[in-house]
Write a structure and sequence with these properties.
- The chain is of the alpha/beta class.
- Strand 12 and strand 13 form a beta hairpin.
- Helix 3 packs across helix 4 and helix 8 packs parallel to helix 9.
- The longest helix has 22 residues.
- The chain binds oxa(dethia)-CoA.
- Oxa(dethia)-CoA binds next to helix 2, helix 6 and helix 8.
- The site of oxa(dethia)-CoA has 20 residues, from helix 2, helix 6 and helix 8.
Length: 333
């Protein structure tokens, strides 16, 4: 591909529900314990949306913050991509809802389904439009309200997930900065390991699908864990190779926040110390497509990312999917 421009992040933002659900709260809901959850996952608490707060509520607020930080007006946006598995409605897309909330009149809008890899998939799509010169400004949002798709009686899943949104505005950056390499992957053979079986054309909604809990998340935790520990590092190595860089060049890796044991295993496999791996899952749990952009925006806010830093993003999850990219940070002006 002929690259006319370099594409990078101009600004980031995030939004989390105020309501906290702690491990101690969960002890009263299912047969579990704070010790088990902390030891097996690293999660202490997660944020939970109110009934009247759909995914777009958080997506819009994260987007507003990202646009302000990027000094970009909604009317300047060419495209809005919302990565989510918890869309407000089957149709229209959450991206269209957010486009209207923002007043981003000239922007195209679509949702992207790649589960926990969704924000990185979206970032790569955005960068392609900018690199070819087709578009100038693309908003990528990762947003979820997983609490609305969890079976609160199933301790295998309900302790893991949380709600929230993160966003990034992509635009032109100086040559040699921004997106330096990426890797997208999928293995559909593992689709049954993590799914929401009901409500689609395979199992249309009916009284039976509700009774059988087919509208909530089902996960074979062990299979997904096995896949995740491999995928997290392998995909980063591929992206590094495409960027002509090595693990030693990474200043900060922002991975999908699924489980602290996955992050620690990734750290070992990559030979990248844990202080170069951003983790906030103790506070927010697994927020699927939202976890990477929330962590990224938080890392920027905390001053963990400086101009010129090499940042790696790594996502892995349902599909099965994985995705990573390497960004040379240009800073939010
Ligand atoms: O976002 C996409 C990516 N998602 C992931 O990467 C998630 C990957 N999977 C995981 O993080 C882990 O597999 C889990 C945290 C989900 C589970 O941890 P585990 O160490 O694999 O536990 P397990 O499934 O092997 O279960 C061990 C035991 C079982 O009891 P028995 O059969 O040994 O008697 C479970 O029933 O722990 C039990 N258990 C629990 N106990 C207390 C499962 N969930 C709970 C719970 N509280 N919440």
């Amino acid at each position: 591909m002929t690259k006319i421009n370099s594409a990078g992040i101009l600004g980031t933002g995030y939004c989390l529900p105020e309501k906290r659900l702690t491990n101690f709260d969960l002890e009263k809901m299912v047969e579990t314990s704070n010790d088990w959850i902390l030891e097996r996952t690293g999660i202490s608490e997660r944020r939970i949306a109110e009934k009247n707060q759909p995914t777009s509520y958080f997506a819009y607020r994260a987007a507003k913050m990202a646009l302000e930080n990027a000094k970009v007006k909604p009317e300047e946006l060419d495209l809005i991509i919302v990565a989510t598995i918890t869309t407000d409605r089957i149709i229209p897309s959450t991206a269209c809802t957010v486009q209207n909330m923002l007043g981003a009149k000239k922007a195209g809008a679509f949702d992207l389904t790649a589960a926990c890899s969704g924000f990185v998939y979206g970032s790569v799509v955005a960068s392609q439009f900018i690199e070819t010169g087709a578009y100038d400004k693309v908003l990528v949002i990762g947003a979820e309200t997983l609490s609305k798709f969890v079976n609160w009686k199933d301790r295998n899943t309900c302790v893991l997930f949380g709600d929230g949104a993160g966003a990034a505005v992509y635009g032109r950056v100086p040559e040699g900065c921004g997106m330096l390499g990426f890797d997208l992957g999928a293995d559909g053979a593992g689709g049954d390991h993590l799914d929401i079986p009901g409500g689609g054309s395979l199992n249309p909604a009916s009284h039976e699908t509700v009774d059988e809990h087919l509208h909530t998340l089902h996960m074979d935790g062990k299979e997904v864990f096995r896949f995740s520990v491999k995928a997290m590092g392998e995909t980063v190595l591929k992206s590094l190779q495409r960027a002509n860089l090595t693990v030693d060049d990474i200043n900060l890796l922002v991975p999908h926040q699924a489980n602290i044991r996955i992050l620690k295993s990734g750290s070992k496999r990559l030979a990248l110390s844990m202080d170069k791996i951003y983790a906030n899952l103790d506070k927010y749990g697994n927020t699927s497509a939202a976890s990477i952009p929330i962590a990224l925006a938080e890392a920027v806010e905390k001053g963990r990312i400086k101009k010129g830093d090499i940042i790696a993003l790594s996502g892995f999850g349902a599909g099965l999917t994985w995705a990573s990219c390497i960004l040379k940070w240009t800073g939010e002006e």
